[in-house]
Amino acid sequence: MHVLIVGGTRFLGAAIARELVARGHRVSLLHRGMTAGNVPREAVHLLGDARDRAFVASILQPGRFDAVVDTILTSEDLHWYLPLLHRAVGQLVHCGSTGVYAPMATAPVREYDPTPCAPELGGFAEKLAQDKALLEYHERAGFPVCSLRVSNVFGAGDVPLDIWGARNPRFFQRLADGEEVWIPKDGTTLLQPVHVDDLARGVQG
Q1: pLDDT digit string, tens, across residues 92-101
Q2: What distance in Å separates the CA atoms of residue 7 and residue 9, rounded to the nearest whole number?
């Protein structure tokens, strides 16, 4: 499979690129060339602005890519990207956020649970607008889209946050010691830590 990653050299995009290449997929990265990133040498770099409509249209040719993974696009971007993607590829995987569920009414949260997206709990209105753009286009045109509503993603050099942003260094010490990992509030809270490499494996699946 040939996958295009939009925003593929930073953090999540780079982790997804590494995972896909490790599993034998072809990967192209659409980015501006501002960041080298820890990406596989096998990845093809397509240098340009992901918000340059003419440039994006020139690379999204039918049959060139099988799927696109998006880590940076806004709701405004998605409105003009989606028809191009529908014409050119088989599926879009988009990086959303669990913040749209806050405050959640049930635990665990289910895909079709309400998304109150309260401003005082982080202001995830843009993420919710992205999800709505995807779902509305899917319902109208039938194009396969997937929004992964991920939680607190961390990687090398980061400190995972607990439920309201406090840091708990003992969490890291337990990881370093190979002990059982604590789950905030016994798994009943919305914000759970997930390592970027684990999320990349989930995207590949």
Answers
A1: 999 999 889 9
A2: 6
